[in-house]
Amino acid sequence: MKIVFVSSEVFPFSKTGGLADVTGALPKALSSLGCEVKIFTPKYSSIDEDKFGLKYNWKIGEMPIRVNSIIRSAHLHQALLPDSNVEVNFIDCPHYFFRGQIYTEHPDEDERFILFSKAVLETLQRFNWAPDVIHCNDWQTGLLPLFLRDNYNWDKLFENTATLYTIHNMGYQGKFSTSTLLSAEIRSGFYFPGGPVEFEDSVSFMKTGILFSDIINTVSKTYAQEILTPEYGAGLDGVLRERKDDLYGILNGADYSTWDPAHDKHLPYHYSSNDLSGKLKNKKFLLEHLKLPFAEDIPLIGIISRMVHQKGFDIVTGASTDLMNLDAQWVILGNGLSEFENLIRSLSKKYPGKVSAYIGYNNELAHLIEAGADIFLMPSKYEPCGLNQIYSLRYGTVPVVRKTGGLADTVHDWHHLKSLGDESGTGFTFDDYSSYTLYTTVKRSVETFPDKSTWHKIQMNGMKKEYSWETSAKEYLKLYQKAVEKRRNI
Ligand code: ADP
Ligand code: GLC
C-alpha cells in the first residue's frame, strides 16, 4: 500500500508535542509492515540540514503556488527518517517557514499551511506518484482533502486516492477569517452558515478535514467517544456525530527504540524490569543535576508538559499549597501560558530543595525525568492519547492521571482494582476534574510509595505493558483499506 503521511511536525526534525513523536514513529512501523510511505512536512529554519543530510531535489526545482493571490515558489528537500528507509519530503518556502518557531500567531498563519497542503499535491504530481491514501494530521492539513476533491479534482492521478484524517487534539482547530477563502481559492459555494467549511462565522480547517476525508480517526478509543459529546467536542461534536460511522479510535504507540530505559541514549544508567537498580542511580544523578537533596524514601514526582489548560494546570494551581505540604520532591519541565510558568517558577523559589522547575523545552531532561522520577503526574482536563504516561509505564515511573481519553485507556488504578481482588493496577487515577481529587490522588500515591513490595508490583505491572507501534500500525492498515474501499465505491 502506498501512503503519503502529512504532518506539520515530525521527530527528530521538528517537535512541539506528541504529534511529532507519532509522525516520527508510525511511518517506520507501517514501512516494516510492507507499506511504501512518504512523509511530507515543512522545512522550518530550525531544521539542521547538515545533521540530517537534507538534499535539494533539482529535478522538482521550483513549484509556483498561488496563495492569497501571490505566486510563491516552493522547493523540495529530502532525507531519510533516521533508522529507516522512509523518505521525508520537506516543503521549502522561506517566506512562510523561516519564522523562528513552528507555529505563529502571525496574520498569515493560515497561508503557511495552505501553501504546505497544496505543495504536497504539487510534488506528488511532479513525482507522477499516486498514493492509495493521503494520511492528514490535525488542523494544519485539514484543507488538503478539500483541495484533493475540488481544486485538484481535474487530475486523474488522484482519482483513486483516499484520505484519512487523524485528529490529535480537538482544542486546536485552525479557525480563520473568511479572507482564507480567497487565500486558499476555496469555492464560495462551500462557505455558508452550517456549510462544510464554515464554523462560527469563520473558516475552520478542522471541520473541513472532518467533512472531506473518507475516514476519520483519533488517537484513543475513549477520546473517539468523548468527542461526540458537547463537553469534549469543542463545538464540533455535532459535525463528528454526523460522521460517527466513519470515526475510529486507535491508540498511539511508544517508539521503544527511543523511549526504553534499557537503551535510552540520554540516560547515564540503563535498567529494565529485571533489575531496577539503575533507576535509583538515575534518580540520584537527576537530583544532583537539579541541585536537590537525595533521599531514597522521599518520592520524586515528575511533570513534563505543555503548560496549558488542557494539561490540568488550573487544578494544579488550586491544589499547589496542599501538594507542596506532601512529603515529596518535584521536578517540573515545560512551557506555555505565562500564568502557569509563573506559578511553577514561584513554587521553585518558595520551596527550594523541594521543587525544581525548568521552564522551556529540553528533550534530554525529559528522558532523565522519565527515568529518575518515582511518580509521573498528568492531571489533564482532556487527553486525546498522551504519550508521557505510556513512556512512564515503561520507565517504572508510576503515573497519576485523570481518567480521560488515552489516559483512561492506558493507566489502571491500583486501589480500585485491588478492591476487586485484582493486582494488575499500573497507577493512580481520578475522575472529577478538581483540585481536591487531584490532591487526594497524589497523596494516595505518595502514601503508597513506602510500601516497597506494593510499589514494586505496580512498577512491574506497568513496565511489562507493551504499547508498540506495530500493533497500532496494523490497525491503521485496516483503516487505510476501509478508506480505499470507500473511495472505490463512490
Ligand atoms: P501533547 O502532544 O498534548 O503535548 P503528549 O503526551 O502526547 O502531549 O506528548 C508530549 C511530548 O512532548 C512528549 O514526547 C514529551 O516528552 C514532550 N514534551 C512536552 N513538553 C516538553 C518539554 N518542555 N521539553 C521536552 N519535551 C517535552
Ligand atoms: C496531541 C494530544 C496528545 C496526543 C498527541 C499525539 O497533542 O494532546 O494527547 O498524545 O497529540 O497524538
Description:
With 490 residues, this protein is α/β, with parallel strands linked by helices. The protein has two domains: 2-253 and 470-487, Rossmann fold (3-Layer(aba) Sandwich); 277-466, 3-Layer(aba) Sandwich (Rossmann fold). Helices cover 38% and strands 19% of the residues. It has helices spanning 18-32, 49-52, 94-97, 109-127, 144-149, 179-184, 205-212, 221-226, 237-242, 277-290, 313-324, 338-350, 363-372, 388-394, 405-410, 414-419, 435-448, 452-463, 469-488; strands at 2-6, 36-42, 55-56, 63-67, 70-80, 87-92, 133-137, 162-167, 175-176, 198-199, 202-204, 215-218, 247-249, 300-307, 329-336, 355-359, 375-378, 398-402, 428-430. The strands form three sheets. Strands 1, 2, 3, 4, 5, 6, 7, 8, 12 and 13 form a ten-stranded mixed β-sheet that branches. Helix 5 links the parallel strand 7 (133-137) and strand 8. Helix 1 crosses helix 19 (469-488) and helix 10 crosses helix 13 (363-372). The radius of gyration is 23 Å and the shape is globular. It starts with a strand and ends with a helix. The model has no long low-confidence stretch (mean pLDDT 97). The protein binds adenosine-5'-diphosphate and alpha-D-glucopyranose. Alpha-D-glucopyranose is lined by residues 17-19, 22, 168-169, 219, 252, 383-387, 406.
